[in-house]
Amino acid sequence: MPRTKDQYSEIRKVSREKILSAALELFAKKGFHATSISQIAKKAKISKGLMYNYFKSKDRLLDELIQNGFAGLEGLGYHITKSTSPEDQLKDYVSAILDNLYSNFTYWQLYLALFMHPDVQKRFEKKMKIFREEFINQFAKLFRKLGAKNPKLEAFLLGTYFDGLVLNFIAAESDFSVEEIKTALLSKYIHKKERKRK
Questions:
Q1: Coil, strand or helix: which one is 124?
Q2: Residue in 113, 100, 96, 98 with CA at minimum distance from that of residue 24
Q3: Of these four, 24, 60, 149, 173, which has the most CB atoms within 10 Å of its CB?
Q4: CB atoms within 10 A of CB 32
Q5: Contact indicator for 180, 96 with CB cutoff of 8 Å
């Protein structure tokens, strides 16, 4: 029985995801430059020729992986209820970001490895700058509501915490639980303020 249009669409979607997953793992482990299209095709269990039906080049693959990562992070804020208190919003944001770091560990390995290369840094420099500015502005608003003396600096420092966590996850992924890290991180901003109110 011939396949329907929806079945073909689903097959394409699954194949595309398999390619992206294989590329992500190989780029993270071997490096972008050391990974070939043939290796990606083999890992994804498809022919090299078929690979080019989905992605014209290795660079296109990299672009989509990076864009997917940015899109995932940018979407975290949509789960935050704006009507809740600044303390609860901060808790929700920090929890969402840490959960994302843990659940997408391979992506963040890739992110860190890639951004060590000057040519890759330059390629995504504009996107990174926009993303960082949006991150800092978003958290600065919360820190302003929480009464921070320098909200923008606090937001920048929180960003450096997350950058450091990415780096340390690679070296010591299982040393601390995500809940321990959340509690310790939030205590620097929220519990201190709550203690002052008592």
A1: coil
A2: 113
A3: 24
A4: 20
A5: no
pLDDT score of 101: 79
Number of residues assigned to the chain: 198
Which has the closest alpha carbon to 68: 17, 144, 115, 32?
17
Give CB contacts under 8 A, 24+ apart, made by 12-20. 12/54, 15/44, 15/46, 15/50, 15/54, 16/54, 18/44, 18/45, 18/46, 19/44, 19/46, 19/51, 19/54, 19/55, 19/61, 20/61, 20/64, 20/65, 20/68
* Number of folded domains that form the chain: 2
- DSSP states of 74-116: HGGGGGS-TTS-HHHHHHHHHHHHHHHHHHTHHHHHHHHHHTT
Mean pLDDT by 10 residues, the chain (198 residues): 72 88 86 90 91 90 83 65 80 84 76 70 80 87 90 92 77 72 84 46
- pLDDT of res. 191: 56
Residue whose token pair is 């890992």 = 43
Q: Are residues 163 and 190 in the same domain?
A: yes
Model pLDDT, residue 187: 86
Three-state secondary structure call for residue 39: helix
**pLDDT for res 197:** 43
- Residue 9 structural domain: 1-56
